[in-house]
Write a structure and sequence with these properties.
The chain is globular, with a radius of gyration of 18 Å. The chain contains eight helices and ten strands. Strands 1, 2, 3, 4, 5, 7, 8 and 9 form an eight-stranded mixed sheet that branches. Strands 6-10 form a two-stranded parallel sheet. α4 links the parallel β3 and β4. The N and C termini lie far apart (about 40 Å).
């Protein structure tokens, strides 16, 4: 039977959460000026600490890329804002996010200082700029994560993968890792409370805090060598690999383009 967290424990976790966010803000001030070999463990420690406060247990599967491996791009399914913390805790990476997030209080500042690449989703012309930025970051030896669905889901299905942001992988001849993310509650069912389907982060956080614990499985599938493939092939291959891992149906609908991302 699925259990929920007592009110007092929720309050304690919420207080610890805000202290940890404050700590992250202070660290983010110096973060951009630190060398990569200090940034990586710093990012991992902070993200792991946040997951621990929320009692989210991370399980990694598959072979993670070594730090020496050049030009690594992650393509992951998107369920929650927690996905970012989960990936940072497992393998430090930068992210591509919609430009609106950069204007969010607190999280916007954290994202900017952590090197998030922001895209104007309503401008098709911005895709070229962001692909160039991704390629530059990959050439410097940093990882980048994209969420090709362009929006979050409940974790019960996989939306069509848009191919536009995978052009950087082709240009850079990168290794593309399809990464599958799945949240489970204490009953072993898909944890829809972890999904970011609420109209605000406050309501989303309340749903997460209501869980006694959450298990998240992060699966790194076999990498795809990108140089000889086009972006559409990469989108379909990564999409199928993640769908197979999660045993989820892929939903192909025109309505999904309302997310604002450019089409294929």
């Amino acid at each position: 039977m699925h259990k929920t967290t007592p009110l007092l424990l929720r309050i304690i976790r919420l207080i610890r959460f805000f202290f940890h966010i404050t700590s992250g803000l202070l660290q983010s001030i110096v973060y951009p000026w630190l060398p990569l070999n200090i940034q990586r463990p710093m990012m991992q420690r902070w993200a792991s600490g946040l997951l621990a406060i929320l009692d989210i247990k991370l399980h990694c599967h598959g072979k993670l890329p070594t730090l020496e491996l050049p030009r690594v791009l992650f393509a992951a399914n998107h369920v929650s804002w927690l996905d970012i913390c989960v990936l940072m805790a497992a393998c430090p990476t930068r992210f591509v996010a919609k430009a609106e997030i950069s204007k969010w209080p607190v999280l916007g500042l954290l994202g900017r200082n952590a090197g998030t690449l922001f895209i104007e989703r309503a401008k098709r012309s911005d895709t070229l700029r962001i692909n160039q930025q991704i390629s530059e970051v990959l050439e410097k030896g940093e990882r980048v994560t994209v969420f090709p669905e362009g929006t979050t889901t409940t974790g019960m299905q996989l939306n069509h993968f848009h191919a536009s942001l995978l052009q950087s992988a082709v240009t850079s001849d990168a290794l593309l890792y399809p990464v599958a993310i799945s949240y489970r509650n204490n009953a072993g069912d898909i944890c829809q409370e972890a999904a970011y389907i609420e109209p605000s982060l406050v309501l989303s956080l309340q749903r997460i805090l209501s869980q006694t614990s959450i298990e998240v499985n992060l699966t790194f599938n076999q990498p795809i060598q990108c140089g000889a493939k086009n972006r559409r092939e990469l989108a379909r291959l990564s999409e199928q690999a993640i769908a197979d891992t999660l045993v989820l149906p892929i939903v192909h609908k025109e309505a999904e383009k309302l997310s604002g991302l450019p089409g294929e």
